[in-house]
Amino acid sequence: MWHAPWIPWLDWDHFRVAFNPMIVSNSTLVSSLLNEDREWDFQQTATWMVPSVASSLNLIPMIPNNNDDKLIWKDATSGEFSPRVAYKSIIKGRRAEKDPIWVRNQAYHDHVQPSFFITFNQIKSLVAELNSALTTPQDTSLGQSTLNVMQGLLQEDFVVFVDAACKDLRSAAGIIVTKSDSEFVEAFSVQLQATLPLEAEAWALLHTVHWCLIQGWHNVTFAVDCQPLVQGIKSRKTLDWRVAGVFARILDSLDRIPSATVSWIPRSGNEKAHKLAKRSFNSYRFGFFNAEELAPLVAI
């Protein structure tokens, strides 16, 4: 407990002062702070930790207990060690931002002599391209490939569209439930504690799966526009070790709905859930929405 910084949001210095100064350091394990249900024992945590930290331990995601322990190489996105990522770890200090003097010298050696007129013309060109992109009418109709994907989803009793919005260390999920004949069932949004886009997408899906379990829905297709998440679920292997905890919980929950499927859908086919997540993120309004409330935002 004392010799490894196991609280994610604390660096080493803050970690050391998180303990009750009246407690003597020893070889106690973190597992001793958990009760028989693998939940934090608040009496124990209040004894060992300062109050501000003890009350926040529930923010640490718990991996289901049927998962094997795994050693993570933190410098690899996948968490897996290889000579290549080890070499990159060794030299990453040399790959820091270049010194301004070196940048200036490099421009000299590369015979780069930017002038005011060259820079001004480049800016004009970029502005013209941006203006063209903004004024060109966009084709909002679904392409044939998207239609084929949509038709493939409409095989189960329920189709649940899921998406997340993530920005500035905040995130929100938009979930829209329909029947296989596209009949609207319900829609809701939730606020998430996620700081990475992939993490937000994973938590959004986990919330959705849990909701379907509560409702007793089994023949469900979860439509997600995050390909890495869908690929990871199909291979039962997370693509980023930083979301390993929530990913393991997704697999554990999906195993309780054997007839459910998770399918990738293009963003154009998931626009409703995307706009709902974005709207809730911007307005700080979360909860259930009926079809009339969603009508100004999306056509259902």
UniProtKB/TrEMBL annotation:
GO molecular function terms listed in the Swiss-Prot or TrEMBL record: nucleic acid binding; RNA-DNA hybrid ribonuclease activity
CDD domains, alphabetized: RNase_H_like
Entry-linked InterPro entries: RNase_H-like_dom_plant, RNase_H-like_EbsB-rel, RNaseH-like_sf, RNaseH_domain, RNaseH_sf
A family per Pfam: RVT_3
Ranges in a coiled coil: none
SUPFAM superfamilies associated with the record: Ribonuclease H-like
Residues in RNase H type-1 domain copies: 163-279
Name the UniProt record assigns to this protein: RNase H type-1 domain-containing protein
Species for this entry: Cannabis sativa
